[in-house]
Specification:
Blueprint: H1 2-18, H2 26-35, H3 42-54, H4 65-69, H5 74-88, H6 92-105, H7 110-122, H8 126-139, H9 144-156, H10 160-173, H11 178-188, H12 195-205, H13 211-222, H14 226-257
Helix pairs in contact: 1-9, 1-11, 1-13, 3-5, 5-6, 5-7, 6-7, 7-8, 8-9, 9-10, 9-11, 10-11, 11-12, 12-13, 13-14
Length: 258
């Protein structure tokens, strides 16, 4: 149906940015500071944080007990940080090399494994991304982000039943995850008997992912609820207009600053 196409088209177009890297909380950042080699001064750390945050790499709300207990060796940790830095700079090949190094040094380093999968996805290596994300889940099944990222990859591979299971697991582990709500909402549009649940998840995700409004408009139209469909279409158009104005404003600021 049109709704499934709307969701899948959006996810195919933005898959590399929709996938979320696994990062760490403030406590981990402090441990990072203590374990990194002496030549990484505060300016370098500030540069890393700025680069990663500018591309949407933000600390997760929750961290699993397995991740908190795990203490990667200093060299693996340094490679991980370099990988995050290259990812933040938009250099996926260099990022992959660093994450591969981190995983080789520490095969139980779930964040490095998961981020390796994300960077493979960025490079369009979807099968490799799936392999690494499954491996990350084997090491740490309690991290929502691993499951959400795998759900996305499985959608791209058209393995929809397994993708739905992973999206549900991601949501169970982090009920506030807009990404997990969006993914599950998209997957539930595949069957008419789950349209109502799909609407609930898409409404939750719409503030962060405005394309959910377009999917909702398709769902309401298919259900014969024309007024609601029109309202969602209007919300989608407004969100798109807002994004365009925001981009134009950003370009204007860059031009005036140069």
């Amino acid at each position: 149906m049109n709704t499934a196409i709307t969701c899948l088209t959006f996810l195919c177009a933005v898959s590399s940015s929709f996938a979320q890297p696994t990062w760490r909380t403030l406590d981990y950042s402090r441990r990072l500071d203590s374990q990194l080699t002496a030549d990484r001064d505060s300016a370098e750390r500030a540069s890393l944080e700025q680069a990663t945050r500018s591309r949407g790499f933000v600390p997760e709300r929750t961290v699993s007990a397995a991740r908190l207990r795990h203490k990667p060796p200093a060299k693996a940790l340094a490679a991980f940080v370099h990988g995050m830095q290259f990812a933040g700079q938009g250099s996926p090949k260099k990022s992959v090399a660093e994450f591969e190094k981190a995983v080789q040094l520490d095969p139980e380093f779930s964040e490095a494994i998961g981020n390796l999968g994300v960077q493979y996805l960025t490079l369009g290596l979807v099968e490799k991304a799936a392999t690494q994300l499954r491996r990350a889940i084997q090491v740490d099944a309690a991290t929502s982000t691993h499951h959400a990222n795998l759900a996305l990859v499985l959608m791209l591979l058209h393995e929809l039943p397994e993708a739905e299971l992973e999206a549900k697991t991601a949501l169970a582990l982090d009920p506030a995850s807009s990404r997990a709500h969006y993914l599950l909402g998209c997957l539930l549009t595949q069957r008419q008997e789950t349209w109502h649940s799909a609407q609930e998840h898409l409404r939750f995700a719409a503030e962060e992912f405005p394309d959910a409004h377009a999917a909702l408009a398709d769902l309401y139209a298919a259900s014969g609820e024309d007024a609601l469909a029109a309202a969602e279409s209007d919300l989608y158009r407004r969100a798109q207009s807002g994004q365009i104005r925001q981009k134009q404003s950003g370009h204007s600021k860059k031009s005036s600053g140069s």
